[in-house]
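Supplementary notes for students who missed Thursday's class. We covered one full example, reproduced here. Read the sequence, then the structure, then the short commentary at the end.
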Amino acid sequence: MEYLTVHDFVWINNAITGKVNAYDYFALEACMAAQYRYGNSHDVPTQAAELLGKLLNVNPFADGNLRTTLISVLSFLNANGYATTKGETELAEAIRAVATGASTPQETIKAISAPASTPLPTTLALRRLITLECNTHASALQHLTDGD
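Structure (token representation):
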């Protein structure tokens, strides 16, 4: 399993907002811990849903929480053998739906991802994957900018 660190979350937020934002370190620690499933750390969708819910619940950054959540969750999923199944607008709407309570994190993860037919190579560094996710989903990030 691949996991994002607190530093990764800060790096993602900085990359997508273009600035260093104030953040709650303890909230980020809680988000980082949400990825783990102690005793059963092989349930990628459940772990991704926990990460999604926690990031949107605690809003650890002064700016860019929706966008940081999108890239963090997609990076976690892709690093662990899952592919994105929705287009850019649908991804943005799915994140907003969880943020507003219109959808659960579990429903959203099920709707936006599936096991990848060809998983990413295990040699792909996590930072390169995150950069790839930011570039691939630039349109979804743009959709999430208003009100984020």
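Commentary. The helical segments are 6-17, 25-34, 44-58, 65-79, 88-100, 105-112, 126-136, 138-145. Residues 6-145 form a domain with the Four Helix Bundle (Hemerythrin (Met), subunit A) fold (CATH 1.20.120.1870). If anything here is unclear, bring it to office hours.
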